[in-house]
Amino acid sequence: MILAIVAAAFAAAPGCASGPPAPPPPWLTPDRISPKPVEAGSEQLQAADAGSGETQTVEAEGEGVTAEAAKKDALRNAVERGAGIVVRNQSLVVDWHLARDIVLTETRGSIVKFDLLSLQRTRGVFRAKVRATVCTKMIAKDLSILHYLSNHARIACVVADFAGGAAAETALARSGLQNALLDKKFNLVDRSQVEAINARERLDSFDHPAVARELGRRWGCDILITGKACANFAKVEQVYGVKQFFYTASIEARAVLVSTGKVIASENVTVRRGGRSRASAQKLAISGAGSQIASPLIKKIVLHLRKSSLDQQSIQILIMDVTFERLMRLEGQLKKVNGMERVVQRSYQHGAATLDCTFKGDSRTLAVVLGKIEEPRLEILGVERNRIEVKVK
Questions:
Q1: Rounded-to-integer distance, Cα 129 and Cα 27, Å
Q2: Are 176 and 290 in contact (CB under 8 A)?
Q3: Which of 10, 110, 288, 354 stands 20 to 30 A from 341 (CA)?
Q4: How many CA atoms does the CB half-sphere of 18 hold within 13 Å?
Q5: Is the pLDDT of residue 56 over 60?
Q6: Phi and psi at residue 114, in whole multiples of 5°?
Q7: d(CA 321, CA 348)
Q8: 97 Cβ contact partners less than 8 Å away, ≥ 6 residues apart
Q9: In which band, very low, low, confident or very high, does the pLDDT at 255 lie, cut at 50, 70 and 90?
Q10: Phi and psi dihedrals of 30, rounded to 5?
Q11: What sign results for the dihedral spanned by CA atoms 163, 167, 170, 172?
Q12: Whose CA is closest to 307, among 241, 360, 254, 362?
């Protein structure tokens, strides 16, 4: 099962590519396995949940100007090795530079425990070697979301250019952003569709998420990135005897989940570029800002989806002594429960049924809710972490 928020984002919509969407990887199933981070300066700490997730023990080296910096560098390299193992074992298709950046954002949260094997100082540089147990399950979650985004989601980019404070008819920032995403193998809506909208729609899509959602629905995309880019003259100076013009460009972009119309990530970037003419410097600055914002924005999208998934649990409900009619009634009741994201009937045979649910809460909380349903009345037979057994009275 895919985590509910990703499932909602990638649900089939009018205008999408023909054929059913690819099934989500099974390791995207949300769970509560989240090892506590290793505290800085500790040489060996065991996380409370270490035994509950998939782990990999690796050795890695690092260096730094201080002993602590060398240890942290070694741990980052250990996490990177763990990420490489996940990519190979799960056959994930991702841009490695972007994947590495995402994984290393929260290095400490991926380390279950580590041993400092050696620490030496040579000519003012510390070198550390560690043996670390890396939680590959958490790494796999981030990389699986990135894999799904880059291989199965459809993304559209709508960015308005401004030069010297005035709206421009160019599409330099959008082109820079689109090219950067294409280089990272993301699937984009056809450019001709985006180019067909007018300047007012471009601006409104940034100021009003509802407009962005409507454009996304029109194009059959899953995520719409909307933004504004502005370039301003900075200075003129001689570079190796050649007169160079410099422009500073800033871009602010937001990612809107088309299925909900909610902004799930935002980012801003400022760059400076030079050229032999004002026009060339301005063009380089705006397009450079567009390309520079791609990676940090995608990283925030992945982290948002991962955080949303950790707020949810997959819980299986086994129901005994239930007729099909009463099962349908129960499904309807469950879909109305606050925090219930998804209810799917997995099987029904000889008066026994299995329901797969995605719920924002734990199994005990859901069991209490089940006990309060008036029709059909249920008797709670057992409650486990991801499983509830009930019998119809």
A1: 31
A2: yes
A3: 110
A4: 0
A5: yes
A6: -155, 155
A7: 11
A8: 295
A9: very high
A10: -70, 150
A11: positive
A12: 360
Question: Where does the chain have alpha helices with state H?
Answer: 4-9, 67-90, 96-104, 107-110, 136-152, 172-183, 191-195, 199-207, 209-219, 278-292, 294-310, 324-335, 363-372
When the pLDDT of each residue in the chain is averaged and rounded to a whole number, the result is 81
Q: For 259-263, what is the mean pLDDT? A: 86
Instruction: Tell me which fold the domain 312-392 belongs to.
Output: Alpha-Beta Plaits (3.30.70)
**Runs of H (alpha helix) within 91-123:** 96-104, 107-110
Task: For tokens 């690092």, name the residue.
Answer: 62
Instruction: Please tell us whether the domain made up of 153-308 is placed in CATH 3.40.50.10610.
Output: yes
Q: Which amino acid is at 133?
A: T
User: What is the rounded distance in angstroms from the CA atom of residue 167 to the CA atom of residue 199?
Assistant: 9
- Token reading at 23: 């099934």
CA separation, residue 240 to residues 110, 274, 275 (Å): 48, 13, 13
3-class secondary-structure state, position 336: coil
**Same fold across 32-149 and 312-392:** no
| The CATH number of the domain covering residues in 32-149 | 3.10.28.20
* Distance (Å, whole) CA 254 – CA 190: 20
Task: Taking each helix axis as running N to C, give the angle between helix 294-310 and helix 136-152, from 0 to 180 degrees, rounded to the nearest 10.
Answer: 120
